[in-house]
Each structure stands twice: as structure tokens, then as C-alpha cells.
Amino acid sequence: MPSSTSADQGDDLEACLLRFSDLDLKDTSIINPSSSLKAELDVNTKKKYSFAKKKAFALFVKTKEVPAPSYKCKEIWWKCCQQLFTGPTGIHRHVAAQHADEVWHQTASVLKQLAVASSTSKSLTSADKRNPPKECLTRNHDVSAWLPDISCFSPEELISGEGSDEGEVLLYYCYRDLEDPHWICAWQTALCQHLHLTGKVRIATEGINGTVGGSKLATRLYVEVMLSCPLFKDYLCEDDFKTSKGGACCFPELRVGVFEEIVPMGISPNKISYKKPGIHLSPGEFHKEVEKFLSQGNQEQSDTILLDCRNFYESKIGRFQGCLAPDIRKFSYFPSYVDRNLELFREKRVLMYCTGGIRCERGSAYLKAKGVCKEVFQLKGGIHKYLEEFPDGFYKGKLFVFDERYALSYNSDIVSECSYCGAPWDQYKLCSTPQCRQLVLTCPACQGQGLTACCVTCQDKGSRPASSPAQHSFKEECDCTARRPRIPSELSQRAPPPLSPEPRPDVAEDGPCLCERHRQHFPEASQS
């Protein structure tokens, strides 16, 4: 068990945690937390305010470290936003100018952590200290006490194998009530930085949802820490972590934050709780149910609906045979989709699925709460776990993922087409217009003809030089999104919608967002 660190040992704590002597952290104007947050802090914690700012800034810079070329001996360089920095001054100025929002979130987490640690230590009795409850056991420790010992590994061992061929990406979630998500945020940030992991972790009072990438050694250590943590060890098992080939290169950076929901359905967890989901079916049980459904002669007259809970650009390149794939752009539209098409589900058995299972947890709870379905089932572990067991089963095509890989392939089926010529094609690319964030399916032949934008409007924009660099900093709506209905109406159960250029997701709904080159604010979502 890690040794405790009293919140009153302020000076020692600071000396222990902030050991980045090579960084110039004298600039105290980098972060400016709001006065409302300052007001929440007690006098003792306010004294640590300057320390918290410096620590947050240093931790963020630390995540950008990359090994310098061998001829530079022991030097460290930094890489951020596709830029390489060879000296601390350059990276410090870049972070201060471009990543103030991320540093502010980290500062808030550190301050909250210190405030909670201080108040908790005062309230614990001597008996409590001998037998602390699980929640206090963690909250009353500094995050560094809950990091794995990596002294037996060299930095090269932790970093090597981060590439897509040798590294690994973890996808997981855990629903359980958390009293102090801000402490979890600070701990997860430190843990991922400690193991050189990138990705996104989303935390709320209802649980945690993460997707992280790094070397196989780093991801193994991360899983071991999560399974041994008192907060999660009774709720998580090794099978809850879905793995795939990848690495730190699959994500532009690490982002950890506290939100109201760990998957953004747009409805407060107090109204629709994860505690009332549908019936979980194992991949084997789900496979049998789909087989039974597909064996029926007239599926439209069946009492069963096979429902894809993902977004349309996900189901476009891969889906279960015979499914109903809503033509929605983000999961927060799903409740409205159910409301608008409620009669479609009346007296039906609904088989729901998504990428890793998390969207089905609350999606099924919402559908159940409507009281119109016979039964609501969900695929445990999502498509990820199903394809591990049935790579040549009833799921055809690729599995869309919210990172730089775009998709995972388990079979050779191609279920989508090139947006321009109609040839079989399922490899997404970003629209070639910098201001656009759409995904487009365009085959090599069409790319060779310069057809690399998502629509005529973007193709025209791409052929003209931008009037100013600032133009590239903002997303602009194009014809693709403007003409798409926000909430589609289903007259009858049908196949997925006809092919059209695919809007790029604004937020990562099964993990980190796809490309951060134009985003300076904290992203919204991470789903499984």
C-alpha cells in the first residue's frame, strides 16, 4: 500500500511533486483561474496557488517530451501541434499561447485535489486513519503515491513500441459513483504522463471512460494500476479493457477532463442513470440472437429490431447485417431520435450495439424508460469484443475508431463506396479544405484527379488561397452538414442511408478526437 502524505506537509509535498529543474517556470501569468474558484479554496490552499499553476504548466510540458537525436546525448526536445521545439523557451511560449485552456483544467484539478486533501485530513479520526474507507484512502493521498514503480524500466523501454505496429491502444469504461472526480482527473493525468501514454480520459461522478495509447509495457502497467486501485478493483476486470494495435502515435496528445457525463448523451445522469440499462448479452448470446433474427423471412415484420447506436459515419463503413442504423451525426441526438420514432419500437425486442458498449449503457436505459419495448438487450463489450470472438460473423466491414487510425479491420468485407465514382472503398480521409472537418470516402483514382474534398463548396474553397492564417482556426459548415436532417424520421425499418460525404466528428465519441490541428479548446467527448 502506498505511504500517505499529509496535506499539511505543504513544502515537502511541493518539493516532491515539482522536480522539473530544467524548466523555466518563473512566469506566473500563464494561468489565470477565475475568482470563483479562488473563493472556494481555504486560506491554506490559497497559499499553494502559485505552486499549482507551476505544477500544471510543468506537467503539461512534460507530456510533450520526445527523445533528442542520439548525437545530442542527454538532451530532451519537445513536440506539440506538429511542431518540434529544441529548447525550453520555445515550448513554454507555445504552451502559454496555445494551450492555456488545457493548463487551466489541470490547475483546477490540482487546486481541488489540495483542497479536498486538506479538508479530509482534518476530518479523519485516529480510527479512520487506521482503517480508512476506500474513497478517503485515495483522496487523502497525493496522486504520486498511486503511480506504479517504473524504476526497473528505462525510459526507452516505456517509450519503445509506441508505433502502430508494436504499440497498443486501450479502450475501457467503468460506471460507478465517484465522490471526487477532480482527484481522479489529477491522478489519471499524472498516471498517463508517468507511462508516456496519450489519448483521452473522461471522468464524471458516474464513472470513467478512457482510450489511451502507448507501448505494450505502458498499457500493461496502466491496466494493472486500474485493477488494483481501491476505487475500481471491485468494478473492473481485465476483460473490460479492449485492446488493438496502435500506440501513442494514434493520438495527438493527452487530454483528461471532468464532465457531467462520461459519454455525452446530453441528458443528466440524475434523470437517466446507468443503473437501469438493458439486459447484457455476451458476444456468443448476441450472435445467436442476430442469427435468429436474420433467419426470419420478413425482417420488417419481425418483433425484433437490431439497432446500431453509433453515428452514421461509423455505420457507413461497417455494421451488422439487417441493422437499423440511425442517420444521426452524434450520440447526443440519440434521445431525440428515439422520441421522434417511438412507434417504431413499440412492442419490439431491441438488440442494441455500439463500439465498446458504453453508449448502450445509457442508450438502453433511455429506451427502457419510454416503456414501449418488450425487451431491451445490449451487446456486452460492444463490437470490439464481438469481433474478437466472431471476426467472420454477422458484422461486416470495418470498425470505426475515434483516433488517427480511423478504422480497425477484422474481415475483408467492404460495405461502403467512393463518394465520387462508387467503387468499393472504406478508408476515410479528412476533407482537403483546412477549414472543414468532414470525413470523405475517396478512392485513390479519384484522389489522383484532385477529388479530395467532401463537396463542391469545399473543393472550391480548397482551390483558393486563404485570406489570412486565422481563417484556418475555425470550423465552417459546408453543404454536407447543412443539408443533413438533424433528427431523421423512420417510416419503417430500413438499411443505412445512401452514401454521401461523411462529416468528420467534432468530438471523439469512442475516444479522442481525430485531428486536433485546429482545436485549442478542451474537446467534448470520449465514448466506447
UniProtKB/TrEMBL annotation:
PANTHER family: THIOSULFATE SULFURTRANSFERASE/RHODANESE-LIKE DOMAIN-CONTAINING PROTEIN 2 (PTHR43268), THIOSULFATE SULFURTRANSFERASE_RHODANESE-LIKE DOMAIN-CONTAINING PROTEIN 2 (PTHR43268:SF6). The keyword Glycoprotein does not apply. One of its GO terms (molecular function) is transferase activity. Keywords: Transferase. The lineage of its organism: Eukaryota, Metazoa, Chordata, Craniata, Vertebrata. It comes from Myotis myotis (Greater mouse-eared bat). Residues 300-395 form the Rhodanese domain. Residues 487-512 are annotated as: Disordered. This is Thiosulfate sulfurtransferase/rhodanese-like domain-containing protein 2.
